[in-house]
Amino acid sequence: MKTIAFNWKLNPQTEKQAEVLFEIYSDLAANSKNQVIVCPPFEYLFGLCRRQNHGNRYLGLGAQDCFWENLGPFTGEVSALNMKLAGIDYVILGHSERRIHLKETDEMVNRKLLNAITSELRPILCFGEDAAVHEKGEASVKKFIKKQVAAAIKGFESLPLSQKNNLIFAYEPVWAISGNSGNVADSPSDAGAVIRLMKDWLVSDFKLQSPRVLYGGSVNGKNVQAFLSQENIDGFLVGKASLVKDEVKKIIEETDRMN
Ligand code: PGA
To answer: Taking the model in full, what pTM does it have?
Structure first.
């Protein structure tokens, strides 16, 4: 089974639009054999979660961030535990847009990850090199992403296996993300190769059982098929295309058709 997570980022503009979009996802997820997850911004997340608690549960719900504490004097932050209790199951962590715009460090991502996972959320941990590292070549890319992931999952060894297995990874080369100028999707074979390497490494060095690694970066209805032909890619983290009904439909349907 593939996992397809749709990251709405800071969209759409109105709650009504969010509800309409959400209904489309609910229908598509109910008919899909794969795991479909939608990650709306916080201002819609809890309202949509309440709607969903009365409706179908095929569609997974995720946040785009959480804090590293669940209670206390932390103005503006959001508790992982309260999200879980509300019925939200996933959280995207370490997204490059937060690393860039909010200066999130590996250490902050690590603290958030540990709190999310012990609060029984399923984190989708983003990692990936930027254009400067990418231009230096394969050896630099490998070195960078291993260091980034190792920092994010520090302290992970001592967690129970059931919690470790909840972690999902998402390889998102920063230069491939649609919001970044000059972006272009990674080549499916290159993305597949990086993901394979990371999986082998996570198994050998971190004793993870069978890590799930998604690909993210300009995935759309046109290129999804090529990525699906890479057996190491366990699914997608989709940004821009997640706001367009026909794109969402195509991505989910193609994934169903090929699996
Ligand atoms: P994109 O975004 O599909 O718009 O490139 C992916 C992401 O940022 O998660």
So the answer is: 0.97
